[in-house]
Amino acid sequence: QVQFVESGGGLVQPGGSLRLSCAASGSIFSINAMGWYRQAPGKQRELVARINNGGMTNYLDPVKGRFTISRDNAKNTVYLEMDSLKFEDTAVYYCNAVGLLRDWGQGTQVTVSS
């Protein structure tokens, strides 16, 4: 079963940017829809962005225009470019399939703080 390793998180000031990466241990080509999820303290995990093999993307309303998801099937990697970060973007970010979930990785912490 494919496993995911997320990286690229960190501490950033409001208005800053981060680029997250998700490296899969196997091919993601067979996974039509891949997504980035996040879980803030005390809240449920939510899907913030998704992309299918055709490149079609969808975003949670609060991140539209600020986050960009992309995928490189040749590298088995999914990316999340996050711009104009806000306090409320603070969370642990995970990647996974959309629909038929695989095992969760360890996630990467994103903290937006001044």
Give a brief outline of the structure.
This protein has no helices and ten strands.
> What is the tally of beta strands?
10
Spell the H/E element sequence.
EEEEEEEEEE
Low-confidence stretches: none
Q: What is the radius of gyration?
A: 13 Å
Question: What's the helical proportion of residues?
Answer: under 10%
Distance between the termini: 40 Å
How many H/I helical runs? 0
Shape: globular
Task: Quickly give the structural class.
Answer: mainly beta
The amount of beta strand, in percent, is over 45%
**Mean of residue pLDDT?**
96
Largest sheet: 6 strands, mixed
Strands of the widest sheet, in order across it, are 2-10-9-4-5-6
Question: Which terms summarize this structure?
Answer:
mainly beta, globular, four-stranded antiparallel sheet, 0% helix, 114 residues
Give an account of the 3D structure:
- The chain is mostly beta strands and 114 residues long.
- Helix content is 0%, strand content 48%.
- The chain contains no helices and ten strands.
- The chain has strands spanning 4-7, 10-12, 18-24, 33-39, 46-52, 57-59, 67-72, 77-82, 91-97, 108-112.
- Strands 2-10-9-4-5-6 form a six-stranded mixed β-sheet, with no helix packed on it.
- A hairpin with a 4-residue loop joins strand 5 (46-52) and strand 6 (57-59).
- The N and C termini lie far apart (40 Å).
- The model has no long low-confidence stretch (mean pLDDT 96).
Layout of secondary structure:
Elements: E1 4-7, E2 10-12, E3 18-24, E4 33-39, E5 46-52, E6 57-59, E7 67-72, E8 77-82, E9 91-97, E10 108-112
Parallel strand pairs: 2-10
Antiparallel strand pairs: 1-3, 3-8, 4-5, 4-9, 5-6, 7-8, 9-10
